[in-house]
């Protein structure tokens, strides 16, 4: 007997378990898509906040003028209006997001698929290729933030890079020997 199609009666009404499971799945899928869409929208909103800070405070420069209090004042203003989530550190993260992932960069296009917590961790990396590697891994492998941090600390990118370099250096050598061997036979 297939449990999915079991029917039972409640107060004289026939009910199918499969029907309820289907409706739950529809609603769960919609909820997950809503979270993903909200994350995407908020990530690009944070990026645009960072862009606006650069335009206002920094006049397009990578560093603010000495003594600028715009970030602190903006933090206070947004915290009063929107509540938590707009600390000075988080406003600085918005600015860093804009500087780290310029328009038309790989990171700019991928960042909407990645949670803000992951992006804050990846933004700390200096090497753009390494950042792009971790962006791809997080987007495709669904790493948790702890998993991402552990892989960064353990030098996962460098190990993968050295293994692939070894592969591309050693394998052609053996392939050439293989061809040479069979051409002589």
Output the radius of gyration.
25 Å
Biggest β-sheet, characterized?
Answer: 2 strands, antiparallel
Categorize the overall geometry.
flat
User: Strand sequence of the main sheet, in spatial order?
Assistant: 1-2
Helix content: over 70%
The first-to-last residue Cα distance is 64 Å
Q: SSE order, as H and E? A: EEHHHHHHHH
Record field, number of beta strands: 2
Structural class by helix and strand composition: mainly alpha
Strand content: under 5%
Uncertain residue segments:
none
Q: Helical region count?
A: 8
Mean pLDDT: 83
Give a verbal description of the structure:
The radius of gyration is 25 Å and the shape is flat. The protein is mostly helical and 185 residues long. It has a domain at 1-100. A two-stranded antiparallel ribbon has the order 1-2. The mean pLDDT is 83. Strand 1 and strand 2 form a beta hairpin. It has helices spanning 17-58, 70-82, 88-100, 106-110, 116-123, 128-141, 145-153, 156-184, and strands at residues 7-10, 13-16. The longest helix has 42 residues, at 17-58. It starts with 6 loop residues before the first strand and ends with a helix.
């Amino acid at each position: 007997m297939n449990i999915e199609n079991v029917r039972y009666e409640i107060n004289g009404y026939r009910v199918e378990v499969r029907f309820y499971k289907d409706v739950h799945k529809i609603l769960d899928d919609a909820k997950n898509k809503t979270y993903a869409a909200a994350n995407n929208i908020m990530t690009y909103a944070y990026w645009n906040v960072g862009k606006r800070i650069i335009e206002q405070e920094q006049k397009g420069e990578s560093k603010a003028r000495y003594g600028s209090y715009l970030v602190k004042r903006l933090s206070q203003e947004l915290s009063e209006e929107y509540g938590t989530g707009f600390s000075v550190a988080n406003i600085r993260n918005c600015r860093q997001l804009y500087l780290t992932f310029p328009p038309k960069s790989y990171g700019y296009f991928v960042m909407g698929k990645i949670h803000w917590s992951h992006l804050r961790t990846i933004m700390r990396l200096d090497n753009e290729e390494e950042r792009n590697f971790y962006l791809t891994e997080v987007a495709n492998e669904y790493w948790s933030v702890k998993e991402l941090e552990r892989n960064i600390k353990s030098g996962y990118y460098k190990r993968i890079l050295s293994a692939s370099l070894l592969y591309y250096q050693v394998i052609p050598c053996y392939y050439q020997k293989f061809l040479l061997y069979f051409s002589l036979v």
